[in-house]
Amino acid sequence: MGLEGLARRFTEVLGDERVITDPVRLRTYECDGLTYHRAMPGVVVLPDTAEQIAAIVRECVTAGVPYVARGSGTGLSGGALPRTDGVLIVTSRMRRILEIDPANQRAVVEPGVINLELTKAARPHGYYFAPDPSSQQICSIGGNVAENSGGAHCLKYGFTAHHVLACEIVTPDGEITTIGRDTGGYDLLGAFVGSEGTLGITTKITVRLTRLPQTVQTLLAAFDSIEAGGTAVSAIIGAGVVPAAIEMMDALSIEAAEAAVACGYPPGAGAVLIVELDGPAAEVEHQFAEVERLCRRAGAFEIRIATDDAERNLIWKGRKSAFAAVGRISPAYLVQDGVIPRTALPRVLARIDELSRESGVRVANVFHAGDGNLHPLVLFDDSEPGAGQRAEELSGRILDLCIEHGGSITGEHGVGVDKSRHMPRMFTETDLDTMQMVRCAFDPAGLCNPGKVFPTPRLCGEVPGVRKEPHPLVQQGKAELF
Amino acid sequence: MSDVLSALGEVCADVREGLPEEGVLGVLPAMVAAPRTVAEAAEVMRVAAERDLAVVPRGNETRLDWGRPPARCDLLVDTTGLDRVIEHAAGDLVVKVEAGLTVDRLAEVLAAHGQRLALDVPLPGSTVGGTLAAAAGGPSRLLYGSARDLLIGVTMVRADGRIAKAGGKVVKNVAGYDLGKLLTGSFGTLGLIVEAAFRLHPLPEARAYVTAGFGGVREAYQAVQQVLHSHHVPSAIEVDTVIGGPVTVGVLVEGVQQGVGARAAAVAELLGPAADVADAPPDWWGAYPGGSTLVEVTAPPTALPRIVAELAEGGCAGAVLRGSAGVGGWHVGLEAGEPPAVAGPLARLRRVLAPLPGGAVVRYAPEAVREEIDLWGPVPALPLMRRVKDQFDPGHRLSPGRFAGGI
Ligand SMILES: Cc1cc2nc3c(=O)[nH]c(=O)nc-3n(C[C@H](O)[C@H](O)[C@H](O)COP(=O)(O)OP(=O)(O)OC[C@H]3O[C@@H](n4cnc5c(N)ncnc54)[C@H](O)[C@@H]3O)c2cc1C
What Gene3D superfamilies is this protein classified in (chain B) (predicted)? Predict the structure, then answer.
């Protein structure tokens, strides 16, 4: 059956309204947050239930047609890039918060629920959903699960993986099943979270809710240089403080944020550091004083302490707008996402600076300093021939640096289509083969979001070392022992 | 056999025949190999694959009596020779070690730098690899998560003898599938864990244990809920009780000296006038209850009173229940020697917990009990698990039959 036939079948299951084949409407879905990869989806479906998704997946499997799940489409690695020859399954109609259970500190949500909406619903009970990607006003929890998303506060609270207790999934066979932690069997949930939509589609998610902290304290410290800021970060972590967040911006990104939102950061700063502590008042007060002292000792020439939420928001405003703000100082830019051991920050930043000067490509640095997650913004003028290429090259060099320093090619945005070609620089063929054994177990037909994460698919039929004859115990009739 | 032994001897210095006392739940290994490097371990596994040997990994034997006996056991791979600290990047709060290192030894190394792996091991002497393979954890998982949450990178030797890794040595990393989590709790059925990298935490400046006794589970449960929903951020909330008797609630508070005093006092207030604050843990803290049968019970925290009631009604008066009331994970130690005395309460528990959701897994039991009962109960997504097993170990040679669903 071709796509047209499939679309007709989908209409039978879902009704006209939920099946999109009109090219104008399909265009809405041609890319995610990584806009330079585009493909028109063959068909888009907007299911309401897990059963519908299971039926859609079964139809795709029967027809041998690939399919891709999509939440809010904010992903930055092209994970939700559709297939022209395939089906895009969008969860945006599955937005019910099914249960808020403060007594057990958990909630059950449908995959399309917007991250921040869950926090809003939990807050009256004194709780929130800890993973807080900057996109939390629009990204879906299903997308968070698929990407194992982090946020500014994951230094202390961990990533999505740490906050998901169970997922109902539609397997690539079209079966509905539940995978969870501590079930006595394999931790399939652990493998599923962060698998970028390649192991199935999650249709219901049980998450952990976190108690709202008693106190939050935030400061902004301005330094002459990135090095001085880096020294402060090391001193804070070295003192045994685990801040809720510790974020750094360099001069260029401060300039951009200033131009965009007039955040009023101290003029002349070569770097600013935002440090936030939260928790029991008795704990935070003591540690906050220490953080302030360590910042001064590292050379902070100005420290601002937020005395209320309005002031805190002002401090965060510059940081939160940083990505979009570089649009003010550059016609185009690439957002990179790489990780290095935190102690390598000064060396790596100095090297990025050198590379930038050598190539004449400007780089604005914004990063989660506490866990060494860099987000260099590589600026270029897309009207200038070859500029995009040069930016791409520099961006790739930065990933090389991350790998050289024992880091990772992605800390939170995922591999998707964008970085699959970099995977062999971080992992051996055997590493990738082993990961794909999981993929073969879940999706032997390779129809579930194919072409993402791995540079080359593994043929699931060709299991190396597979036994050619029946096992002796099988022959003896004891196979059920296994 | 001597032919196989010499083939193994060519790739690994420490190879010998198995001794009678080295049986895994009664199944005697024909041979034992103790590689001292990852490369040696890989070679051993390659030879095992060539010779079609069933392989059971062994650390310090703290949990080798868990689960079911292997269907076959030709070769025990002893990991205790793999005991190096590969890298401790103190400034990055990261450590990478070989799997045969004991968690206790690791703790000593880290403590010298004012750091720790925030993972409690209920059984002293456990190796890192064994702890991961059994997904063991203790009280502090309330705040820090369990082994799978602290693991940031893993190296395994596959069934075919090839070395594969996943994750890395940075805390934040989403490149590729998280095989570390998949291996955690796999009880040696998917591969041999040879190296592990963890995120670390600073050792707290101060600790306080606040304990209080309650007449029954209802009152104890209320106290647990009070602390759980408080602002005091406990690292652990534990309960300890003899079914039918009083219940002790224990709360661990960690942090800076000034903060811990105030927080412990506040927690003590929530626990009532009988609460006691101490620097050292109560003697039951973080240990498995005694008894010949150990049952691991998992359910949302609110299930606690129900679990205790079911055990009481199921004839388990006198059994000890202990565990993480804030997380929803407990252990029950039963003295029962007869299968029905375990099967009865187990069935009751599974029935009431299933919809919550929750379950009860028997970790160890006397042979008569083990042979009669289903140790795991219903495990969701078992067909998918079998397919994972088939991919990782197509010949079903790794700890065959030891795991859920006969895997
Ligand atoms: C301005 C901006 C800021 C951002 N900040 C952060 C940040 O701070 N931290 C961070 O980690 N990320 C950040 N991101 C990236 C992105 O928001 C996250 O990856 C987010 O989790 C994606 O959610 P989504 O609903 O948009 O998913 P989509 O983009 O729609 O999909 C992402 C992936 O998830 C899969 N998927 C979606 N739904 C399901 C499902 N139900 N089951 C299985 N797979 C599914 C898709 O196939 C795809 O592979 C940012 C993005 C933007 C645009």
Answer: 3.30.465.10
